[in-house]
TrEMBL record:
This is POP1 protein. GO terms for biological process: tRNA 5'-leader removal. One of its GO terms (cellular component) is nucleolar ribonuclease P complex. Residues 4-99 form the Pop1 N-terminal domain. The lineage of its organism: Eukaryota, Metazoa, Chordata, Craniata, Vertebrata.
């Protein structure tokens, strides 16, 4: 029995040496590992790329790239002036409004002013062709009690009186502006309650899954729970949205609905003369199918 034990240890050592050190140290389930590491500060989808090249900071519930680890200022300037530079702005929060156009405009007029320039009713923006930007105030309080700057995009008209509006706000302003929008539209009832459970894996914390190599195939050893094991769940939401709270509200009187789409709709900024060329080469128009 002693010889068999020594033989098993020897085989295990030989087997571990077949892989490089990086492969031996790799986590068995990257999704579970990444979810565990971003319980307090959520990562953007470009996090891994930034983490290898930037000094990361934790702000507004996110983990963001702050400054490059090497001198890349000239390269960035060259990209902005001659090529194309991409920035990930997905940490900005998106608030979605749905409802009748006249009802939306009636209440939105209370939180902005024509004296400051652009409003939600500007013709070029209302058509959905251009993005607009303005300062938002507390309802009927202009020029006092400014909440902060926002940008907005109307979904182009589809022939009906119902419209869709996306308002983009900085995460530091999100809660105040969302509270004001819910107040002016009287959206208090949750439209849908989407509760997500905390991130769990098929094994308890602190217990590792052993990997057995058999005939060239890899499989996980079943734990004590067997089939009752809970699969890995991906985090839903962001640093400004509680996953245990509803994120869509509706006004029963007007039918206006407000939804928090933070981290559901990603946002990228392209800077440089070749930006349109990059988009043209990257994106392909979908064929419109009519039923």
């Amino acid at each position: 029995s002693k010889k068999q034990a020594e033989k098993a240890v020897h085989q295990k050592k030989e087997q571990s040496k077949t892989k490089c050190r990086k492969a031996r140290r790799r986590h068995i389930n990257l999704v579970a590992e990444f979810n565990h590491r971003q319980r307090k500060n959520i990562w953007l989808e470009t996090h891994i790329w930034h983490a290898k090249r930037f000094h990361m900071v934790k702000k507004w519930g996110y983990c963001l790239g702050n400054s490059p680890t090497e001198k890349s200022y000239r390269a960035c300037y060259r990209a902005m002036t001659k090529h194309c530079l991409l920035q990930d702005l997905s940490y900005y929060c998106c608030l979605e409004l749905k409802g009748k156009e006249n009802e939306l405009l009636k209440q939105l007029a209370r939180i902005c002013s024509i004296d400051t320039g652009l409003t939600f009713q500007e013709a070029c923006c209302l058509s959905g062709r251009f993005e607009g930007s303005l300062n938002v105030y507390r309802a009927d309080r202009y020029p006092e009690d400014m909440l902060g700057p926002v940008t907005f995009i109307w979904k182009p008209r589809d022939g009906s009186e119902n419209r869709q509006l996306w308002i983009w706000v900085h995460p530091a302003l999100k809660q105040d502006i969302l509270r004001e929008l819910k107040a002016i539209f009287q959206c208090s009832e949750p439209e849908e309650i989407c509760i997500t459970e905390p991130v769990t894996t098929s094994v308890q914390e602190g217990k590792q899954v052993e990997v057995v190599t058999s005939l060239g195939n890899k499989r996980k050893k079943e734990d004590k729970e067997g089939e009752k094991a809970v699969p890995v769940k991906k985090i839903i939401g962001d640093g400004t949205r509680d996953p245990f709270q509803p994120y869509s509200w509706i006004a029963r009187t007007t039918g206006i609905a407000i939804s928090d789409r933070s981290m559901e709709i990603l946002r990228y900024r392209l800077i440089g003369p070749l930006s349109h060329s990059v988009l043209t080469e990257t994106l392909k128009a979908a064929s419109i199918q009519t039923v």
